[in-house]
Design goal:
330 residues, alpha+beta, Peroxisomal Thiolase, Chain A, domain 1, 2 domains, 5-stranded mixed sheet, 10 helices, 16 strands, 32% helix, binds oxa(dethia)-CoA
Length: 330
């Protein structure tokens, strides 16, 4: 477990998102597998998810999220000096999605890398960007959380296919004297990693045989138990280390995997459910995109305001956790 209370020099200065047009509702899922709208809503809080077109991949989701950011804010990407893309579903392992974004937007030659922290990816990218900005070497970093999960979903497995959707979120982070990223927390339970995986080259995770289909496989109950135990501990540690209380949180933005997990975490930590932002109802579990998509819903309906204290908490495959305290700056 790593905790840090930072002198912040990072400010979020622009933001954009994208979801594909195609909607897959719970009624559509009933035609694919033995499930029901009632089961899905009660067990997960999900009503529909967005599915990328056959020829639409993670890179396209990234481009569209950055284009949305450009359309909404007066951004200048010319002097971006680092690009980080968090994804578990890149079109290719290399070139990285970050290098593709650099080329697509004609950004000058700069650092570009993809990171893989599954559903904790967007917050992990925020943390890494914050570290790079703190060194003073980098001044303007573009981060993106994007996943085309439908391309890695087994639509014959009812325990997973009802969960996942596609989307992307982009943010621009800039060096400033008075930053707004106020605290950071990370944790990893690597010994439980085989409960949630997407295979690549090996048929085994440290002695645990795995399916080699390249599709997402999850032992939902194990991951659920882990999440509702670990996330409250992390929230307590992050707040204590930064001298904050749950009452001071304006918005709790957890990874949108399952509304029941969110309810349980709120009950265990005393964060009121009304102070939670989630995106699973409309978009399903979009992994690295779920936290930006939840923030975007709150920007659009005016719930989130400049100066609000937000606790972003990503958790998932690894099993890994990444959380930040962030004062909303847009
Ligand atoms: O994003 C990364 C992190 N991931 C998470 O945080 C996900 C954590 N896990 C979960 O959200 C939940 O475990 C799930 C939503 C995946 C599953 O919900 P659950 O309440 O844990 O269900 P379960 O796996 O315990 O299954 C309960 C029953 C089983 O039937 P039996 O054995 O009781 O007869 C399943 O076969 O529900 C059955 N089931 C379904 N029934 C209808 C499983 N999937 C479905 C389905 N429709 N789609």
């Amino acid at each position: 477990m790593t905790l840090s209370a930072l002198k912040s020099q990072t400010k979020l200065t622009a933001f954009g998102v994208y979801v594909p047009d195609r909607i897959l509702t719970n009624n559509d899922m009933e035609k694919l597998v033995d499930t029901s709208d009632e089961w899905i809503v009660q067990r997960t809080g999900i009503r529909e998810r967005r599915i990328s077109a056959d020829d639409e991949y993670c890179s396209d989701l990234c481009y569209a999220a950055v284009a949305n950011m450009q359309a909404r804010y007066a951004v200048n990407l010319a002097d971006v000096d680092y690009i980080i893309v968090a994804t578990s579903t890149p079109d290719t392992f290399f070139p990285s999605m970050a290098a593709r974004v650099q080329a697509k937007f004609g950004i000058r030659s700069c650092g570009a890398l993809d990171i893989q922290a599954a559903c904790a990816g967007f917050v992990a990218a925020l943390q890494l960007a914050n570290g790079l900005l703190l060194t003073g070497v980098h001044r303007k970093i573009l981060i993106i959380g994007a996943d085309a999960l439908s391309k890695a979903t087994d639509y014959t497995d009812r325990s997973t296919c009802i969960l996942f959707g596609d989307g992307a979120g982009a943010a621009l982070l800039e060096w400033t004297e008075d930053g707004t990223l106020l605290g950071s927390y990370t944790a990893t339970s690597g010994a439980s990693g085989h409960h949630l995986y997407r295979s690549s080259l090996s048929a085994d995770i440290d002695g645990h045989p795995i399916q080699t289909t390249g599709k997402i496989v999850q032992d939902g109950r194990e991951v659920y138990k882990w999440a509702v135990t670990q996330v409250p501990k992390g929230i307590t540690a992050l707040l204590e280390n930064n001298g904050r209380t749950t009452e001071e949180i304006d918005w709790f933005v957890p990874h949108s995997a399952n509304m029941r997990i969110v309810e349980s975490v709120c009950e265990r930590t005393g964060i009121p459910l009304e102070k939670t932002l989630a995106s699973m109802e409309l978009f399903g579990n979009t992994s690295a995109a779920s936290i930006p998509l939840a923030l975007d819903l709150a920007i659009r309906d005016g719930r989130i305001n400049k100066g609000d204290l937000c606790l972003l908490y990503g958790f998932g495959g690894g099993l890994t956790e990444a959380a930040v305290l962030l004062e909303w700056s847009l």
